[in-house]
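User: Teach me something about this protein's shape.
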Amino acid sequence: AGELATARRIEGTLTSRIPASVRVRDTVIPGEHPIPIRIYTPEGDRVRAGMLFAHGGGWASGSIEAADGHCGDMAAGADVVIVSVDYRLIPEHPFPAGLDDVFAALGWLAAHADAARGLVVGGLVAHGLGVTLAWSAGLTAVMEPVAIHKFRTKT
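Assistant: First, the predicted structure itself:
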């Protein structure tokens, strides 16, 4: 428990700055367990693909604050809108609470995104997460060479 507390205390000191060209907005996905999200939007008003980002930490640590610079860099560099999820952590919220939060955020993003532009799931827990979310949502996961999961609805 002491190591987890230490990791959580220092995690926010390890992030870089968000590029000035990226707008950041905090909001909450309503529900039985409201889910805080942070949305990173590159400058300009054009329609972009959406990316759901789940921070690393093995479901036990990490936060949207700790991923700020990384998400801002991805938004600017890839020209996509990043939605970072502040999912519930173990042990305070037993598994699969965090996975449930990320799945709910995927549904929120799918409802608010332009389907023609694409929907991507990424992050440090995303290697198995993308496939798990795709399967749970009845979607097909397409593995790209850079290990980004793109989703298309099944026909």
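Now, about its shape. The two ends are 47 Å apart (CA to CA). Helices lie at 2-10, 68-78, 97-112, 126-137. If you'd like, I can walk through any region in more detail.
User: That's plenty for now, thanks!
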